[in-house]
Predict the 3D structure of the following.
Amino acid sequence: MTDNTNAATPEVVASEPAPAPVYYDVKLNARFTLQDFNYLPRDHHIVDKTVYDAMEAAGVVADVKQLS
């Protein structure tokens, strides 16, 4: 008896789950615009890490709390 294998069958490879996204509750000390969206200083904003990093680089973050 011979073993027949199907060469077209992909091998199943286990992968690690993607890390959970990180969000921040940010209060600003100045107006900030990113991709034509205005973030106003009088409001709290829930943003992801990419937007937070851009705000931090612009120096407009007055208060921040990491949510996740």
